[in-house]
């Protein structure tokens, strides 16, 4: 049966034979059962290649990514079997975009007007965005414009698990004597969203982001009270 883990048409060792063998081993690891039970099974698969597809489709223990990978590897006809390079390019071996770990998650907000219709001076954030794009490789950064509170923040933290969380935008729009003083300004469809510092701190405390080490507040006069409240509530940051 060990020989049946090699190229089915011959027993000559080759890269294609290795792909076939690895496919059978992966099937067993993924499913907990064997695809081939005997030498007769091997002959059956060579004579009727559709049997491979039927067995892969009937196995309930495989994810779709695993099934797609195995379809490309366990092909009796060598010419139809994926090369090792093609196998490694399969979705199974790549991290989905919404599950990757990044070093820096940058959230930008530049609301255009207040709730009463008064205009807000726009921020020149594009220079900062370009600096992030040039200085940090794509796989290590995630940039989200027009950040809304709280949904965009919670969803982004869940998706990309950053080590550094950066907020860039207006701060202290409300004035020194408002309950929103020293807080960050978010936006919804271009309209200012103001949240008291306590709401922002509570959101970060609730979000499960185990890799988070640093929160960078890039907004005017956000050190107090927002920064101070963050340090008090989340001293590990």
UniProtKB/TrEMBL annotation:
Coiled coil: none annotated. GO terms for molecular function: ATP binding; protein kinase activity. InterPro entries: Kinase-like_dom_sf, Prot_kinase_dom. It comes from the Eukaryota. Gene3D superfamilies: Transferase(Phosphotransferase) domain 1. Residues 1-93 form the Protein kinase domain. This is Protein kinase domain-containing protein. It comes from Coccolithus braarudii.
